[in-house]
What we know:
Blueprint: E1 6-16, E2 19-27, H1 31-34, E3 35-36, H2 56-66, E4 76-81, E5 84-88, E6 99-105, E7 109-114, H3 116-128, E8 136-143, H4 147-159, H5 166-172, H6 177-188, E9 196-197, E10 211-212, H7 213-223, H8 226-229, H9 232-249, H10 251-257, H11 263-269, H12 275-288, H13 293-300, H14 313-316, E11 321-322, E12 325-326, H15 330-344, H16 350-363
Parallel strand pairs: 3-7, 4-8, 9-10
Antiparallel strand pairs: 1-2, 1-6, 2-8, 4-7, 5-6, 11-12
Amino acid sequence: MADAFSYTFPAIRGVQAGREFYVSMCPLRLLTKLFIFDNEELVPELRAQRTLNKARVPEIARYIVDNQDSYTFSAITVSVDGDLKFEPVAGEGSASYRMGSLTVSMTSKFIVNDGQHRRAAIVQALENAPELGDETIAVVFFMDRGLKRCQQMFADLNRHAVKPSASLGVLYDHRSATANVARHLSLTSKVFKGLIESERSSLSPRSRSLFTLSALHFATTELLTEQESGDFHKASEKCIAFWEMVGEQIPEWTYVRESRMTSGDVRRDFIHSHAIVLQALGRAGRALFQLPEAERAQRVKRLRNVDWLRSNAITWEGRAMVGGSMAKSGQNITLTCNEIKRVLGLELTPEETAAEEAWAASRAPKRSRTRKTT
């Protein structure tokens, strides 16, 4: 009989909300055999967790394979629909009373409450790196107390989950070449030093910072080619050279460093320190660096003649702004870059040309239609 067979896990017993739970380690190669998902064809009301976002899985799998010596995963949480039996290695009152063996019937069903994307990514990663199969991941076991309880567990586990800000992600990401360059710029460039908010991705009106680290990172990614970003020293030199040229053409940035203007006033009245414009400047800078150095230095001086005021709606509404507020979409970045390229005398790519034509068509006055009379 199947009930005569069981899984045994070394485990530590704990108590939450008056109920026991168990923490163990599971070899990665066993994840696909032990832990399953709900039937994704069921309506949400009859499932215990969200459907698997398959687009996320390959990215997580690549992270594991590309960082086999440094990847990090938190525990997977599962509910066990079946018999559980915990046998401590020592009697009650002993220091080892909470350590022991967790026995689970093979007829039990394991439902992943938290970590379904990690599990799917690990399974996919093992196809390319089977040697990782003997490594382990922490698993937290709860007794399954029905669909309602599983759904509540999912809600509770995700209730207070807050994704870190993009700036903090850049600050702590030492694998990304462009993140390394952006951090270096924030600490050494005379344009950005002392003016970067490295923890938050938005700035309050009273903030002394003029830029966010995430905005600088996005701009750095646009400026550098993938090949350039791989060489930290050359990438840093290029970025410093470019942003110092640009900084010389935007006097408000200097005024903030010299305490002649506040960061809040500049961000309120001008668009040039906002993420979308920095990113557009970086993208235009990549094209600018295809010119000879002397010509590049002359072209960039044209930025001094740009009217960066928010009140300049004729230029920026529909490009960097929508309804008077700073925009964030990829299309707006492209349209802002197009205007900067026009000022610098740079050619647009086919994609940028198409976006410009679509924008111009949307702003063209509609012809009035007259009905013919007979």
